[in-house]
Amino acid sequence: MSVYASSHPLVKHKVSLLRDAQISVKSFRELTKELSVLLTMEATTQLALENKPLTCWSGVISAPMLSEKQPTLVPILRAGLGMLDGALSILPCAKVSIVGLKRDEQTLQPISYYQNIVNDISERQAIIIDPMLATGGTALATINLLKSTGCTNIKAIFLVAAPEGIEVLQQAHSDVDLFIGAIDNELNEQGYILPGLGDAGDKIFGTL
Ligand code: URA
């Protein structure tokens, strides 16, 4: 697994703005969208190209175009939905596979309560989008789910990640690359990232 912590100044600046305790829902949504664009750019630098004939104003040229099916974006409910518009703005033909996970109160393990995965996922790259990588439990369950449906090419984008969650994914899925806006210090006892953003889902949906 490769872990890419963005070094882009715009990413660093926008993550810092997201941390402001007084941030409005509007600003949180806008920044989440902007960061999703920037991180999706970073996560797609390896997409394969092939030259295809194209008639342009000066004649026929051999033009580099994406050679494979566009990725499927995989927002994890609910906070991942806040990143979807941004990612789709530069991958407008991407399919969307939605995963909903909740914690089983007996086992404390994430269980899937909703999944709608594109049926040709084995032919696509999957890009998981979720603002926060905390304990890693949800992301781990999502990767397991995607692999069980035949997906072999998985990347994941997070705005902020805790070292604990990165470690969990590294141990379990060394083939999955992570693209992260900022790697923070640690988790607190409630599983929140420090310094973190607070509850990203609540901030995106205004349910504070
Ligand atoms: N989910 C969040 O929204 N925030 C955290 O800090 C951890 C998980």
Features:
6 helices; alpha/beta; binds uracil; about 210 residues
Describe the structure.
- The structure is a single chain.
- The protein is α/β, with parallel strands linked by helices and 208 residues long.
- It has a single domain, classed as Rossmann fold (3-Layer(aba) Sandwich), CATH 3.40.50.2020.
- It is built from six helices and 13 strands.
- The strands form three sheets. Strands 1, 4, 5, 6, 7, 8, 9, 10 and 11 form a nine-stranded mixed sheet that branches.
- Helix 4 links the parallel strand 9 and strand 10.
- Helix 1 runs antiparallel to helix 2.
- The protein is globular and about 65 Å long.
- The protein starts with a strand and ends with a helix.
- Bound molecules: uracil.
- The site of uracil (URA) has 10 residues, from helix 6.
Mean pLDDT: 96
Beta fraction of the residues? 25-35%
At the first level of CATH, the class is Alpha Beta
CATH architectural group = 3-Layer(aba) Sandwich
Percentage of residues in helical conformation: 25-40%
Number of discrete domains: 1
